[in-house]
Amino acid sequence: MSNVVRHTDRVAALLAARILSGTWAEGDKFPPDTELCAEFNVSRTVIREALRLLGGKGLIEAVPRRGTHVANRQNWALWDADVLNWLNNNDISDKKYDLSSDALDMRLALEPTLAALAAARADTDANAALQEALRAVQQTPDTAHEQAFLEAFYRAAGNDFAIAALPLTAFALSHRATALPLEAYRRLTAAIAQKDGAGARQAVLQAILSA
């Protein structure tokens, strides 16, 4: 990775932290490039690339003759993996900017439907992948294996849009303080294999609500 890319990623993360924590509020104007260059000890190219990165994720917007401002929250790409990673790396005390409970809400809205779809659609390969992922997370109950299990579950639903939600799910998992719900995952896997939609929905709800 080039020095420019490393510096760009570092500066983008630091600027994003100020936005996502509420230090810089919606509508606040960014300091001039020269000031940012001096603060972070980087070139104007790095600053411009960092701002381009933040703009692509909806965190900032440039208005002709008005400069660069923090964008409205409704424009933030909160499902983006980088944005979720930046959120995870911030110590956010303001409840307005703590989105962990919102992420849990989205899992509750999404996963019961995916469970029913998986029970209806999962083929032999999908069931085999899910069972293999279950065995792996049972043997090594850590976050990485849990995420792999949930990816197999999402894929079993046969809906490509569901895969886009995996970064949000990973973000929600990172905020859980309880043990992995292995028994609920076992029941979910069995219900999908048995094409038991109601059982699959119940099992996934148990898994989420145990967080």
Report on this model:
It comes from PS1 clade bacterium. InterPro entries: GntR_C (IPR011711), TF_FadR/GntR_C (IPR008920), Tscrpt_reg_HTH_GntR (IPR000524), WH-like_DNA-bd_sf (IPR036388), WH_DNA-bd_sf (IPR036390). This is FadR family transcriptional regulator. The chain is mainly alpha-helical and 211 residues long. It has two domains: 3-79, Orthogonal Bundle (Arc Repressor Mutant, subunit A), CATH 1.10.10; 100-209, Four Helix Bundle (Hemerythrin (Met), subunit A). The protein is 64% helix and 4% strand. The protein contains eleven helices and two strands; from the N terminus they run αααββαααααααα. It has a two-stranded antiparallel ribbon.
State the gist of this model.
The protein is mostly helical and 211 residues long. It has helices at 3-20, 33-40, 44-56, 81-88, 100-121, 124-139, 143-156, 160-163, 166-173, 182-193, 197-209, and strands spanning 60-63, 67-70. A two-stranded antiparallel ribbon has the order 1-2.
Tell me the overall shape.
elongated
What is the helix fraction of residues, given as a range? 55-70%
Distance between the termini: 37 Å
Low-confidence stretches: none
| Rounded mean pLDDT score | 92
Q: The CATH topology of the largest domain, please?
A: Four Helix Bundle (Hemerythrin (Met), subunit A)
CATH superfamily of the largest domain: GntR ligand-binding domain-like
SSE topology string: HHHEEHHHHHHHH
Strand order of the largest sheet: 1-2
Query: How many domains in all?
Result: 2
By helix and strand content, what is the structural category?
A: mainly alpha
The fraction of residues in strands falls at under 5%
How many runs of DSSP E, i.e. beta strands? 2
Question: Tally the helices: what do you get?
Answer: 11
Task: Give the name of the CATH architecture of the largest domain.
Answer: Up-down Bundle
Main sheet makeup: 2 strands, antiparallel
CATH class of the largest domain: Mainly Alpha
